[in-house]
Structures are given as structure tokens and as C-alpha cells.
Amino acid sequence: KQGKKETIFLGSRSIENVLKKIFPEIKIIRRQRLSKLSYSGYKNLSRLPKRSAIIAFSQIDLYEIAEKIKQFYGGVSVVMGALSPNVRNAQVKLFEDGKVDYMVATDAIGLGLNLNIKNIFFTNLLKFDGKKRRYLTYDEIAQISGRAGRFTEDGFFGTTFKLKSLNNNLIKFIEDLEYTEIKKIYWRNTKIDFQSPTKLIKSLNQNPKNRIFLQKKNAKDFNCLKIILNDKKVCQKINLEKNLMLLWEVCSIPDFTNILDDFHSRFLIRIFTFLVENKKINELWLEEQLTKIKKKSPKIGDLNLKIAQIRIWSFISYKSNWLNKPIMYQKRIRKIEYDLSKYLHESLINQFVSDYNYFKSKQHILNTNIQNLILIDDKKIKFGNSTIGEIKGFSFSVKPSFKNKKNFNFKVLKKRLEFFANDLVSDFESSSYNDFSFDISGNIFWKDQIVAKFYKGQDIFKPRIKIFFDSFFQIFKKKIEQRMFNYFNFVLKNTLPFHKFIDRFDERPTMIRAILFFLKEGIGQCKKKEINNFYDSLKSDQAKWLKNIGIKNGVHFLFFKKCKFNFFSQMIINVYYILNLNNFISYEIIKINNIKKIKDHMPYYQKMGFYLVKVEQGERYLAHFSYLERVICKAYSLRKNKNKSPRKNFMRNDFEKIAFTNINKINLCNFTDFN
């Protein structure tokens, strides 16, 4: 495609004459290389100069050379065509930032990378181009060699590993900056006929009229189209021209995996079928694909494949009319690609860069103060000057680039982490309970880090506790669990001190047992009308006993005086009844605008002490019983003192304004009273 105002072609002089024939009025601007490119001969891998890139043309050679370079020089970055742009750029940055002085790369280094390389060394001149093994052309070798040198700084090219030398003609070709003129370029017809599959194939196979063009054959999209058109089920769906156009658009989905055309074609058939039948890609199938892809693998080859697969989905996600939630999927897919790329980059570092290689031997350990080298700083695990992980509760999260069983440094770190684990548990055991907290879901936090969780137990006051820990804390599990149980009992005793009276009441008289049962159900409170029959049947000494243990007979509720608004009751009810509530009810009274939102959980809100209240105007509130008792008592007190009107600052909200003006307008209702 041409630009609206100007089209710029960037390339070597080899394409100049072709462009002049296509665009006779084209303006040619030449830029000469400012530095010299010289042949430096053969160098052994162990004697390569710094700022060198070693070129290999097979993954086997590439990994073998990378391992050797790591052994000789401490680290190497890896660049190959199979890497995603994110990983490739991260690996390039290692080299550009000087963290490593060597790079092992395929011929991908000659495509779009501007690097500060001083030397290029070839290990072979044979490559597999996707069809066959062949020798690189002079121009390809010159293009790669040209990566050496920058601006006015001279560059050098040579050979290493299994390639002992280059022939004199090739050396001269590169040093003299020669090139082979390109006389023909590939072309494909853009005027495509979608009237039928036959006409579509014919239009794509059309030969160019201009002799400088060569018909492009065996393109990936064209190959896949021909394979798909052999599928009988697909052929039944392309009776309409728009469906055939859609099929060709689907064939444009790139195959970054570069696996067999048959595999990619099967994938395209699934996409096409979904779009024809449902106009959208099936979300369940899409979710299955993303779930499989995002699962990390320790193998570099598998990670490369997963990144290639997610890049295909990235392309699809921008076909907004193909997906139900394109923007959401674009973000998710971008996140998966980022996570996989980061993991692959760290895996490459772990395998090929001794970035943390402080210890070369056991003798080195004896001569090093490990206590000063491996430190915990603000929950960050430091190995020398590098952050290699962090503390998350009772887990040490160490970067994959460091955590490797073959990594000798990790063995050293492991011993140090065992010491830190012991230290951390000691701090945990001696901590004040002020350092602990919980949320509505039962998650337990210590110093703002989640360390455990309450789960439903055999009784509401006896939850199960699950500790979150890794292998370093296995030996401390019982200590941690005991501390957690102690914390629960501490909060229980201080928040619900009356629980001992309602926890066990089997030996009490029948009427008292009935009342205590209702009080336990409501964690210290219940409606009076629920237990009036039992309460009225109490003997005087029994009523006195209830009063002595702190039970108050209120206006609408029977309750323990120390039963107040609190988050603990909300949490244990949410956990015991598995309500899956997300947030605490943070206020004693809240206005309810949509009754449906609380309908299903209303019986449990009452157990927490919250009841529905309706005022005369029809407004609805969810109020804590202790708040209602206080407000109602104040309202009755004001009504007795008729000459004393309530002050404005005495009324904190609209509900209190109504209650203190006319208490008869306030009605405590059963949930069933609301429509």
C-alpha cells in the first residue's frame, strides 16, 4: 500500500533498479556506510572478543554454543526468529545494557535490529529456509556481517566453532560492500474474485503482466485456503459470496507457530465454522484455548510455541466483529503474552546467563559472608545487588531465573532461606494481635500479608484453619496453626465474651435452653417475639439468672448487653454458611434502594444482627439491632419529655429525624412483609 502523501522504501541498492521501473519518478537518497568492515579470521569460542555476536542456524547449535559461551564468559543473550518481539527485545536489552558481552543469534539478527555489536562470527553457512537446507547467499551473509560496527566505529566479521574460514571472493564481497542486483520481485493479484471457490483460486493464481514481477506461490494463506476447500463441510457453507470472502479473511490469520499447514488449516476451519454459524467465536472454546496456552512450561521450546499461539489469538482479538468482548480479550491476551514472554526471558537468563553467579565453588562460599550477601529488605529477597524474589506470607517467591535445581546459587540460597523462615516464625509467634486482621471471606492477615484462612468447621465458633505456606515452613506448620487458633479465640473472647453461655447449654432447663438456642443462632441477639412464649414461662430465678449473665430484655430484642456491632460476627457467619459475601456491612444502618440485592441473604443478615426497617414514607433500611434499640429508647425518652424537642445535631441521619419526631412511623418488619 502507498502512503497518502509519501511512501518511503528503506533498503540496499540491490532493489534500486526495480523500484525505478515501478516508480519512474522515484527519488533515490543514498546513505553510505561510515565505518569499515574487515575480516578477522577464525577465533576459538573461548577466545572471542567482547561485544561479539555468534551466528548459528539451528537450535541445537545455538543452545550448544550458548552453553559454552556461558561457561567461558559468564553469560550470553539469545536471539532467534522463534522468539516473540517482547522476548527478543528483552534479550537484546541484556546485550545493549552491557549485562552480557556476547550474543548467540540466528540470521534473525540481520532483520530490523540495530545493535552495538563490534564483531560478527559465523558458525555455519548452511540454513534450513522452511523447505530445504541451502547455503546462504553472499547478500545474506553480507547483510548479517553488516550488523558489526556502528556509525563511525569499524566492525569485524569472522568464523568460529565448526566453520574454519570464508573464501576470498566472499570476504572481498563483504568488505567492499558489494551487492547483487535484484531483477524481479514477488507479486500477487489484489483483484480477487469471490463469485465461487474456483474463480477465487483462479484470481489468486493470475500471472503478472509486468516482466519484473514473479507470481507468489505457496503463500501460507493460499496453501491453507486450498486445504480448507477440500473439506466437504466447509464447501457446504460457502454457497454465499460473503461466506467465501469471510473464509479468505480467516485464511489471513497468521501462523506464528510455523507448524504444518494442515494443523493451521484445522484451526482456521474451527474459526470459520463458528463465524458462519454463530457470527462469533464460541467463548467456551476460546477460554479453553487460552487456559491451555497460559499454563507455563519449564521447556524453552514449549514456551516459544505457547507465545506463538497467543500471538495468533492477539491478531484475532482485534477482529472486533468476531468476538463478543473484543476489548476484554485484547487485554487478557496481552497479559498472557506478557507473562509468557517474561517467563521465557527469565528462563533464558536462568539457562544462559550467570547473572547471579557469585559462587563459582564451595571454596568461594567459605570466603564469602553469606549473611551480608543474601538479605531480606522490605520483604524483598536480595542476592547481592539483585532482587531475586519476595516474601509472601509464609512463602518465599523466588524468580524462575534463579530457582533451578541445577543452579548452585539456589542451593546456597536455600540454606539461607531456612534461616529466614525460622526467624520469620519467631517474629510471628511474638507478634501482638494488633498485627493480625481478617476480611469478610475469612482470610487472615499478618502484617498486611495473607497467611491463612478460616473455613467452615463443625461449629460456628470452631472454624477450620488452612495455613498458606511453602516447603520452607513445613516444620513450623503446627506452631503457626496453634497461633492462628489462639488469635481466633482471642478475638472471640474480646468481641463476643458472652459466647461461653450460648456455646454449651445442654444442661440448662428447657425454657433457658430454647432461649439460648435462639441467642446462639443470632450470635447474642434475637427478636423478642420469637422467644416470648419461652421467656414468659421462665421462673423468677431463671429470669434472674439470664439477667445475671448479661442478657437484656429490650424493646424489640432480647440480647446480651455486650453484643455490639462488629465485623467478627459477620465474618464467622459468612464463613460458616458459605455465603461468599465480598464486603463487610460497614455501618450500623444503611438505606436499601434495591431489595432484590439482599433478598437471598436476608436470613443470614438477621443472624449478624441486621434487620429490615420500614418508615411511613416507604423508605427501607437495614439496621443493626443495637442501633435500633438505642434510637428507639432515645425516641421514647423524648416522647416522655414532651417539652424537650430534639436538637438538630442530635439527629445524625434521615432515619433518626423520623424516629425522634414520631416513633410510630418506624416499623420493624419481617422480610416477608416486603414485596
How would you explain this protein's 3D organization?
The protein has 675 residues and is of the alpha/beta class. Among the domains are: 140 residues, Rossmann fold, CATH 3.40.50.300; 165 residues, no CATH class; 86 residues, no CATH class. 43% of the residues lie in helices and 16% in strands. Strands 1-8-5-2-4-3 form a six-stranded parallel β-sheet, with helices on both faces. A four-stranded antiparallel β-sheet has the order 11-12-13-14. It is elongated, with a radius of gyration of 38 Å. The two termini are 65 Å apart. About 2% of the residues have low confidence.
Architecture blueprint of SSEs:
Layout: H1 16-22, E1 37-42, E2 52-55, H2 59-73, E3 77-79, H3 85-96, E4 102-105, E5 119-122, E6 126-128, E7 133-135, H4 138-145, E8 155-159, H5 168-175, E9 185-187, H6 197-204, E10 213-215, H7 220-228, H8 232-235, H9 241-251, H10 261-278, H11 283-294, H12 300-317, H13 326-352, H14 362-366, H15 370-373, E11 374-377, E12 380-383, E13 386-392, E14 395-398, H16 408-430, E15 436-438, E16 443-446, E17 449-459, E18 462-467, H17 477-495, H18 499-503, H19 510-521, E19 525-527, H20 528-536, H21 540-548, E20 551-553, E21 557-560, H22 567-576, E22 589-592, H23 596-599, H24 602-607, E23 610-615, E24 620-624, H25 625-640, H26 654-661, E25 666-668
Parallel strand pairs: 1-8, 2-4, 2-5, 3-4, 5-8, 9-10
Antiparallel strand pairs: 6-7, 11-12, 12-13, 13-14, 15-16, 16-17, 17-18, 19-21, 20-21, 22-24, 23-24, 23-25
Helix pairs in contact: 3-13, 7-10, 9-10, 12-13, 19-20, 25-26
